[in-house]
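Hey, I'm writing a tutorial for new members on how sequence and structure tokens pair up, and I'd like a real worked example in the thread rather than a made-up one. If someone can provide the structure for the chain below, I'll link this post from the tutorial.
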Amino acid sequence: MHGLNKVACELYDNNAQDAYFAGWCNFIPGTLHKYVFINLTRCTDQIHTFGLIMHELMHQSIDRFEEDLFMEEEIITWAELEAYEVFKIVINNLKQI
């Protein structure tokens, strides 16, 4: 995961303005399952929350389309549509906190 370190993460002063990671896109080793993780402590307002979701889903979309950058529009559109769905989930969970 691009040099992420558990100990460094645990020692990092994570807060609403700064965190060791705001989110990530990854896969479960040995499976075809992929996921996006959003650090809810970084979801302080709707516009930045949506930007974070879109950022992570762009990583997943590029992988999904096997980095075929000739499919740029499809890559971005897929990430946008998925971001709307994840945004709904995140907003509903933030309302419960």
